[in-house]
Specification:
Largest sheet: 2 strands, antiparallel
Radius of gyration: 20 Å
Strand order of the largest sheet: 1-2
Structural class: alpha+beta
Amino acid sequence: MYEEHGQLEESFTIHLGAQLKTMHNLRLLRADMLDFCRHKRNHRSGVKLHRLQTALSLYSTSLCGLVLLVDNRINSYSGIKRDFATVCQECTDFHFPQLQEQLDVVQQVVLYARAQRSQKAKHQQGK
């Protein structure tokens, strides 16, 4: 699908707040998302400069995010999740825990939230 249509891009500016409005810029892209995660190896020093800029932007006030749509199986690595995990393993920056550690935390939080919802539903049925 991506190969047929190429990259599509649309930008939006949204204002949030009733009295004190804050402006946010939003850019939607349809592209190969892993291109945004891989280090570019065009020039000899290009990788180092790209990694330095990435590290500096992690702690800036101009935050960026990427949403990667996957299925609901947290610990299965297939398709785009496998490719994303491979990119994560290639990156040796130590700003965040390993991908598997992050996924384990997500799984624990999901299980806890599910238990809380179940307990709340049982409590409400008992009333």
